[in-house]
Amino acid sequence: ELAQRLIDELWTKYGAARSLAGWYLPFEVDNWHFDGPESWDGLASFYAAVGKHAKRVAPNLPVVISPFFNPSGGLTANGWAEMWAAILPAAPIDVIALQDGVGAGHASAEELAPWFAATAAAIKTSGADTELWATVETFTPEFDPMDIHAMVQDMIAVQPYVTRYWSFSYDHYQSPQQVGPSLHRAYLDYLTNGSQ
User: The pTM is what?
Assistant: First the structure.
């Protein structure tokens, strides 16, 4: 109910703004705390209620979530796929922007493919019209800016499964407003020339 009220308030205040491009539901679901069908049913009900409300308010705006995984425990990649295959048929989620977890220290580049593949398979199994994006973490576990080469390797690891990339968080770790301009120049060089 609180999330629905917030959607109403945001729409009343900012619905006419072109910068309001969609709804991000900031409840970061993970593979540790939602380990069985009972909790999956609760998530499906929650996402259905909030997502459908967002769609009633603004039918053309996407609903986006950004869950994360930690392969050191909790559900396996197969269990993760089963969870999302159970949730998505009930929930109008347009985008799963799956966090790669590398910056947080939850995963390595080598561990990404199975989790992104499992999420893509769950979307397909569910029949949902949901896109899979990658939320690329641009920091290290020490909360320093990640090397551009490492960041690109993470992107390459998930490329077969995603249609788009998000960054978390350029404004904290690469922006010249926060750190020296060299990181921003490296980012621009990558965008322009593809060099790392």
Answer: 0.92
pLDDT digits (tens, 9 = 90+) for 51-103: 999 999 999 999 999 999 999 999 999 999 999 999 999 999 999 999 999 99
Q: What angle do CA 46, 50, 53 make, to 5 degrees?
A: 145
CB proximity list for 118: less than 8 A, separation 6 or greater: 77, 78, 80, 81
| Inter-axis angle of helices 148-158 and 181-193, nearest 10 | 40
Helix, strand or coil, per DSSP, at residue 126 = helix
H or E element that contains 134: strand 131-137
* Nearest-angstrom CA–CA distance, 156 and 151: 9
| End-to-end CA, the chain | 46
